[in-house]
Design goal:
The complex is a heterotetramer. By secondary structure, chain A is an all-alpha fold. Chain A has helices at about 5-20, 25-50, 60-75, 80-105, 105-125, 130, 155-175, 180-190, 190-195, 200-225, 235-250, 255-270, 280-295, 300-315, 325-330; strands spanning about 140, 145, 150, 230. Chain A contains 15 helices and 4 strands. Chain D is α/β, with parallel strands linked by helices. Chain D has 10 helices and 10 strands. Chain D has helices at about 40-50, 70-80, 95-100, 110-115, 120-140, 155-165, 185-200, 210-215, 235-240, 240-250; strands at about 1-15, 15-25, 30-35, 55-60, 65, 80, 170-175, 205, 220-225, 230-235. In chain D, the strands form 2 sheets. In chain D, strands 6-7-8-3-9-10 form a 6-stranded mixed beta sheet, sandwiched between helices. In chain D, strands 2-1-4-5 form a 4-stranded antiparallel beta sheet, with helices on one face. In chain D, helix 3 (about 95-100) runs parallel beside helix 6 and helix 5 (about 120-140) crosses helix 6. Classes of the chains: A mainly alpha, B mainly alpha, C alpha/beta, D alpha/beta. The interface of A and B includes residues 109, 241, 245 and 280 of A.
Amino acid sequence: MSYLRGFYLLTAAALLLPLVFPDNYYVTVVGVTAALHAILAVSLNLLMGYAGQISLGHAGFFGIGAYASAILTTRYGWNPWPAILAGLVLTGIIAFALARPILRLKGHYLAMATLGLGIIINIVLVQTGELTGGPDGLGGIPTLSLFGWNVNSDLRWYIVIVCVMLLVVWLALNIINSRSGRALRALHGSEVAAEMMGINTTATKTGVFVLAALIASLAGSLFAYQQSFVSPDSFSFFFSIELVTMVVLGGMASTYGAIMGAVILTFLPELLVVFEEYEVMIFGAILMLMMIFLPQGLFVGIQSLLRRVGRNRSELAGPDTGEPEESGRGAA
Amino acid sequence: MFDQILQFVLTGITVGATYALVALGFAIIFNASDVVNFSQGEFVMIGAMSTIAFSAGEGLPLWLAAVGAVLLAICVGMMLQRFAIAPARGASVVTTIIITIGASIFLRGVALLLWGKDIFGMPHFSGEQPIQIGEATLLPQNLWVMGGAAVLVLGVHYFFNYTTNGKAILACSCNRTAAHLVGINVSMMMLIAYGLSALLGSLAGILVAPITFTSYDAGVMLGLKGFSAAILGGMGNPMGAVAGGLLLGLIESLAAGLISSGYKDAIGFIILLLVLFLRPSGIFGKASTERV
Amino acid sequence: MPSEPLLKIAELTSHYGPIQALHGISLEVNSGELVAIVGANGAGKTTLLLTLSGVQKASGGSISFDGTEITRMASHKIVQSGICHVPEGRQVFAPLEVEDNLKLGAYCFRDDKRRLSEELERIYQLFPILKERRKQPAGTLSGGQQQMLAIGRALLGRPRLLLLDEPSMGLAPLLVEEIFRVVRELNDSGVTVLLVEQNANAALGIADRGYVLETGRVILTANADELLADEAVRKAYLGH
Amino acid sequence: MALLKVGGLSKSFGGVTAISDLDFEVPEGQVYSVIGPNGAGKTTLFNMLSGIYTPDEGSIRFRDREIVGRLPHKVAELGVSRTFQNLQMFFNMSVLDNVKVGCHLRTKSRLWNSALRLPGTRREEKQAELWAREALHFCGLDKYLQLDADALPYGVLKRLEIARALAASPKLLLMDEPAAGLNDTETKEMRKLIRRISDAGITVLLVEHNMGLVMEVSDRILVIDYGSRLAEGSPTEIQNNPRVIEAYLGGEIEYAV
């Protein structure tokens, strides 16, 4: 299918990188984090970019997944795989129970409710110290193993997380280009019109909210095993904001945009380290300027730039043949 | 037991008075421009931190330092409106939220650059001799906070109810087109609203800094609490926001004392969620029916 | 003819995003006249007035008022220069008191307190009901009273040109008559009026001259009596 | 036979009556128009017919089933589709996808099947595309297929909204001011399109201000003013009804000038 063309490119690029740069810190260490962030950003983008429902609490579901795996494996001696599943079930139940009341809200109220939810989850993680280890966190989490193949090196983690990311991207692309995905985008475009086309908007919103939470939970579990340590700091309100920023920076309603945003925001601090104490300030300034001057995000911005360059070139080459597009745009 | 509760109530009112000022700032900006300003907490930080910088660093008397800090905060507020909010007019809710979040990170970054990560204290305005009320005690600074907040809230009330420019801002918030048509300079009113909001936030920061200390990131939690308080009381209603602030302060203080201090923040947010689920217009707001 | 018209609009165009609402409108209003613009819903009447007031941006053409170009002027400057607008659907400041609404109408002259109270008195004489209700929130008034309030608010801006947008909309026939009587009186007392109406017969009944608008264009202009008799007006509304 | 029966319908907002005690019947296969001066309650009526508003009183029966109390998507399931006065396009989607959304009720695949791209989903997807292309072709929009909705001029969007509604294969199509904002050529095309829709056996309920259009396409016309029925009849009857003329042009007011 045509929409998967970009996906094959992404797959090739992601898998070739460690071959070209073996043992490179930026690939296998920062790259793993970028891929993990990409999973989160892609899932949040389904909810925010496509369905138009802002969430400032996504890190909360990420945290539930991470802590479910961490607690079950270290305190109760579970095998990591069923622990992941348990995390998913728990996240699913919480997300499903909260989806309806939360998604009835709109705009700023929705933002505040999801933000509050994320903060509450974080506080619970800090306060239930006998289970979670409190603010000090929880260490000694075992690593994953797959039919005897232990995921115990940076490179192996890179492979695992990148594969999961590719799977998530594939699922997301399939959804977006299907009946359900169109329903999501439709309710973003116009909720009334979506209802009139027979879309049950409440059920659709609930579905995508739960799905996004489940993917975040899976990412959380992976994160716990990869780090072998979790602490509440990784799941704070700030991280939720960072995730939203990734989605918006790359370009809402574009899966590749979300990936791009995740990669940029993961590498940006690495680069800004050079500026030392200016780091936070520059980060804030970039965020503001991007939103003021390029609200549709980098991905769309670059795309339209390329299109404009392409059009100029075709004009140079001779008379334009793509007349419906031209007439359409000209009139608009 | 009674004395203990009295103590919690006194503390709660002090904290609540701070929340109320931040919430009032939120409500003013929200009503004037439909923007939820996530950098509201940063005004609080700017007020406290620059007062300390001007007085301890530059050797100015405390009151003069405070005046300078408030003026600085007002400038920042107006610049935020002019250069970040106004150009993005008509953008989606998500976009404006991220712009103000970006502004808050930026301001925090500047503060970090100027003053580092240290925690600063500020001298109490009139000594630290506790006042006994039964078994409960109160610092003079608590009275400063309560009294200061009361004066400011009354001032804002006066501004919106008895001055032409105050009413002009209200006019902009209830009907922007009509405001244009009677000759109100709407963009000027927006600047005034942001300036006023910054003034309230920075004064809250200055009043409370001697009790709570301050640092470059002190504004984050206060900003979120102020926002919660504004929603609790009803965003559309400035005095509701004040009541929401006091209520949130009281609830937190009682919850911290009687249940567990660790969960005090959580309880505040749980109440916020319940209010949003059951009565999104806020406890004191008017219930509005949404039309398609 | 007097030398220059008070208001002169030439080839005015305006867009809402990709939709063109005004397709090159030209018209004139002389000092002291009462001019009616009639036309069916969607003809561009409201857009025209909003563009005059600077709330809606003009995309081409020019507007000059009393010899000064005001096409790109900020709306509050336009009000200061003497064009006051009674918007469609009244648009009073609903939560504010009636008297506050009126005082905001004099926003441009807010420092002239003495004159303000005189003018308030004048409005209260014109619409006694507003004086009775002056401490009530404007939103609690009936439709007709809100229309009076909207007119009063505009009058406090000391208009040299009064723009009235659909003052009869949603009002019972008796009230429509009352409002139109007041408009006529205002005009007789020297205020130049540009009146936009769907209710063509009532508007042309009090106007000196009229323009008929259809899909953003002027299709007809003549003296009011001639238009009243013209079949084309009926056609613009009923299609035949 | 009446496809739609409205009886005793009333709705008010905060004390202001928008529709009061309205009765009418729309016969199957006809183009039935509702006209009236601005603010007469036409859009409120449409919003009740499509389940967006709940009436205060009265019943709306469509193919002998009650609509009142059903959510809009449940009303749509019965075979009612509509367009909107102020365009409600999905501007975040392509032209083709917009119309494919119209096929929502004719397809079934769920989130998980779609995510895994199971064979059934793919078959359905092809079918939906076919239907969508058909609807676009019907409305003369073939050449815009590949564009994004936000790249289209206004007049085309008006037709796209109709194509989307038709893709749902409705029994009754509610059209809210399809010609508003169109120029003369576009209005002519719209007139032809409404005729074609009617010829295809779809009952049309039309709200429109362009009287030329209304008079030409309608089989019957209902005139409402202040939320209640002023007149009903054939286009010629309506045009010559003195009450209608007065409602539109207003009564003359006498002045001694």
